[in-house]
TrEMBL record:
Residues 1-29 form the signal peptide. Belongs to the AAA ATPase family. In the C-terminal section; belongs to the peptidase M41 family. Keywords: ATP-binding, Cell membrane, Hydrolase, Membrane, Metal-binding, Metalloprotease, Nucleotide-binding, Protease, Signal, Zinc. GO terms for molecular function: ATP binding; ATP hydrolysis activity; ATP-dependent peptidase activity; metal ion binding; metalloendopeptidase activity. It comes from Candidatus Alectryocaccomicrobium excrementavium. It holds the Pfam family Peptidase_M41. This is AAA family ATPase. Its cofactor is Zn(2+).
Amino acid sequence: MRKSPIWLGLSCCLAVAALAMMFAHTANAAQCALISRILLGVSLISLLALGVTGRERARSQGDGRGFRVNPACSTVRFSDVAANEIALNSLKDLVDFLRNPEKYAQMGARIPRGVLLYGPPGTGKTLLARALAGEAGVPYYALSGSDFVELYVGVGASRVRELFAKARKAGKCVIFIDEIDAMGKKRDDASSDEREQTLNALLAEMSGFQPSEGILVLAATNRVETLDPALTRPGRFDRQIEVGLPGRDERLSILRLHARNKRLAEGVHLEDVAQSTSYFSGASLESLLNEAAILAVRRGAVAIENADIEQAYLRVVAGEDRPGVGTGREKRQIAIHEAGHAIASRHLQPESAITRISILPSSKGAAGYNLVQPRERALVDREQLRNQIGVLLAGRAAEMLICGAEALSAGAANDLTRASEIAAAMVNEFGMTDEPYLSLRALRHTLGTGSSDGALEQCKCLLRQEFEKVTQLLASHAAKLDRLTDALVECEVLSGAQLEQLLSSET
Ligand code: ADP
Ligand code: ZN
Ligand code: MG
């Protein structure tokens, strides 16, 4: 890992992501969350965030309609959570409240009834909720927003009432609703009758209980911007805690925590691992060390070596290479597509090194990918976003250029989706238009939906421009595109160094 800090980037169906995420001074929570999601929530790393909810949820199922909720006892403590200082401190306050709610009630203190944890997947939201219940020593009820989503009107609402009735009877407790966006989406579509009732039931229950009861509702979401504003009004989820992706030092402390029970060889330095894992979530870091440990066991080794970590890294970000299947022609087309991303990335995002290109299918479902080491940034600007769109569209542009419109493959779907999401955010949120003082999203939110404002046209125009630009760029490097395509067809996988050698000569 030390010598070759590989990277995540992801192309084609994995795409060449590489973006900033610490929008520290875009104060608006929803906006930050949206940005995180677009710019890198993106990543397949999110697939790894399976967490523990699955197991917990199993306990909350059972009766005639498939719903029964029982309290669990959490064994997780704050010491099991690394990094996330701000979130931890905020929750520590609440431990005392859960232990002694009467004290606060007597003093007339108003404690938040609901705490909302939001941030990208795998950042430890579920973990924090369990740690809070564990520290306070109170039972907790773990549910998912989707447990309340039913076909039949009224079922969700009656489940909410059932849950709160039970919790009240039990006394002090934590109610944890994971993925609350499933039940608390904005109420703007026609099919929302059932959801609306469910949400109203939840809001009514939350405003119904007394602080002295010692019941705290915790909820988590990766998509805070889709939540109904009724949920975030004072008196509901009035404390909102962002749980963001860890920075370098935070990654180090998460790695240290998960390395506690693992045997690392002497040459392994977690500082280096932390350095080369920008944009990893806590879940991906945990998974990285775990995969490395498994690889070490398979080798029959006594400790985890750097090579294990490097291999685990590839597995975590890109999955394992699978043998290629398709025909020679299909293989060539994938090579053209990936070569297009690579060449565009080298020109448009030179600060992000490509460390691997593969045209072998990956176990994560990509037909091929570019692995890119993105530079961590505090803020992205318009040009970088445009370039990112260009790199995303370059796979499709190369296919068009070499194979023509008739031969386009379906493999670019994910690239197109992500490019469109970025364009939409630029137009809708960031005011990167000819009206740089406007947030269309905020306006539409306030004025109500249905107002037409040409945003779609603006997005299309932006995408068209970037597509044309990157097509030209690739056309002017046609010889390189050809050379890289041939090399990929022949070798299937190229390292960053091999790529550099191939492309560094003129022409
Ligand atoms: P989320 O609910 O935000 O998607 P989880 O809480 O399910 O994320 O995290 C999944 C796993 O990742 C945790 O069980 C833990 O092993 C690891 N993890 C994530 N964040 C942290 C952290 N800050 N400290 C230690 N482990 C973490
Ligand atoms: Zn692509
Ligand atoms: Mg979770």
